[in-house]
Amino acid sequence: MHLTSVLVIGATVIALLVLAVYVIAVRTPEGKLDHVGGMRLVLWLGAIFPTVVLTALLLWALPAMRPLPHQSGDLRIQVQGEQFWWRLRYEDGNGPGVISANEVRVPVGRTVVFDVTATDVVHSFWIPGLGGKMDMIPGRINRLVVKADKPGIFRGVCAEFCGLSHALMAFDVIAMEPSAFDAWLASARGVPARADGRGAELFSANGCGACHTVKGTPHTAMIGPDLTRLGERRSLAAGTLPPTLESTAAFIRNASRFKPGARMPAYSAMPIEDATEIARWLRSADGEAGR
Amino acid sequence: MNRDPLKWHERLRVSLWTLIVPPAVWAGHFLFSYLWASISCAKVGSFARFPTLFVAGTVVALAIILVSGWIAWKQQRMTGDPPPHESGTQIDRLRFIAKSTLLLAGLSFVAVLFSALPVAFLSDCR
Ligand SMILES: [Cu+2]
User: Fold this and answer.
1) Which residue of A has its CA nearest to B122?
2) Which reaction does it catalyse (chain A) (predicted)?
3) What spacing in Å lies between the alpha carbon of A160 and ligand 1's midpoint?
4) Could you say which of B114, B118, B124 has the minimum Cβ distance to residue A67?
5) What is the pLDDT of residues B4-45, one digit of tens each?
6) Do the chains contact at A55 and B114, CB–CB below 8 Å?
7) A75-189: CATH number
8) Taking CA atoms, which of A82, A94, A110, B117 is between 20 and 30 Å from B21?
9) In which region does residue A237 sit, left (phi positive, over 0), alpha (psi from -120 to 50) or beta (all else)?
10) Looking at CA atoms only, how far is residue A66 from chain B in angstroms?
11) What CATH topology corresponds to A198-286?
């Protein structure tokens, strides 16, 4: 990034200067510099030079902190921080909002408006690679405008201590080419095809539908993350576990073993085979676009 | 011996109390900046377009710092005792405190400027 290179080069130049002064100081014979000269040196190199450099950096960096402009047609993503995961809703004005969780996708080169809030305690939404942090405060909507300028994967975290699993509350941001993003959003608006079977029955029988939504099934509860497209996420449980069958099954049986304080009950009595069946069913949905 | 009457800034003696004037003004200005920003965001609903009050507060803060720095500058230039400086004399103590006040005034001046600058660049309450 531009800022980074300027700062790195600046720091290197200053370090070399300090070294040079050091070498000169060691080589110069004693008594060469009188008291007044020494004081003058301290004044210029120790006070005036740093003040000028810092002022210049401040003047140069402050305009970059101005919020980006945005328009009413821009993609909006509502993000709600919950202990300890992220509830998402994409609104692009072409049809109903798309609900998702724990992984954000943004189109490269387009302005994206995040409206962030929280339901339980204060969280903070932070994608260091894309913008500053923004507090998520219950009862208040804060706005963060970002624009990704190259495709890639950025990591986001919760930056405000919010409870036992605060450090396990993260997410990936996938910046995609606009056309791939549009295709993804359109497919996320639909219902993915999903193999029926024992996993579906177990999901219902264990009451998972009391908290989770799986589109295309009778389960529409909104207490926990939407699981419709679990299979396409790059991580499980908000950046905590790898997106594998095994870890999904293990998480289902005992969520708070991996995330202390997680608001999902343990199913310790559930046989691992059943948990694996549910995990397979959840991960089986197709409809992947531009992973 | 007929001495000139002391000038007013020479009659004001720097002390530990005057020493803390510049940093106290800096602290006060810092608090003022936060109060000003939050009150204008809460009451006006947007960043105050013409931050007259803020500019006035900043100018006052800078002026107080400048004046105390100037007094300190004058006083630290009074003739001190000849070396060796083996015991703490009145005049040496004065010169020392004056010098410290001067340095603190320089620091506080820059600090007040730095905390005021963002207002010139930021344009809303986010
Ligand atoms: Cu959090």
Assistant:
1) A66
2) 4 Fe(II)-[cytochrome c] + O2 + 8 H(+)(in) = 4 Fe(III)-[cytochrome c] + 2 H2O + 4 H(+)(out)
3) 6
4) B124
5) 666 776 677 778 888 899 999 999 999 999 888 888 888 876
6) yes
7) 2.60.40.420
8) B117
9) left
10) 5
11) Immunoglobulin-like (2.60.40)
Asked if the ipTM is above 0.85, the reply is no
- In chain A, which residues have their Cβ closer than 8 Å to the Cβ of B106? 47
What would the pLDDT profile of A218-274 be if each residue is shown by its tens digit? 999 999 999 999 999 999 999 999 999 999 999 999 999 999 999 999 999 999 999
Q: What is the DSSP letter of B122?
A: -
Tell me the domain boundaries of chain A. Answer: 2-64, 75-189, 198-286
Residue B59 in tokens: 């100018």
Length of chain A: 291
Domains A75-189 and A198-286 share a fold: yes
Note whether A47 contacts B106, CB cutoff 8 Å: yes
Q: Which pair of structure tokens corresponds to residue A17? A: 């200067």
3-state secondary structure string, chain A?
CHHHHHHHHHHHHHHHHHHHHHHHHHHCCCCCCCHHHHHHHHHHHHHHHHHHHHHHHHHHHHHHHCCCCCCCCCEEEEEEEECCEEEEEEECCCCCCEEEECEEEEECCCEEEEEEEECCCCEEEECCCCCCCEEECECCCEEEEEECCCCEEEEEEECCCCCCCHHHCEEEEEEECHHHHHHHHHHHHCCCCCCCCHHHHHHHHCCHHHCCECCCCCCECCCCCCCCCHHHCCCECCCCECCCHHHHHHHHHCHHHHCCCCCCCCCCCCCHHHHHHHHHHHHCCCCCCCC
- What is the rounded CA–CA span in Å between residue B61 and residue B68? 11
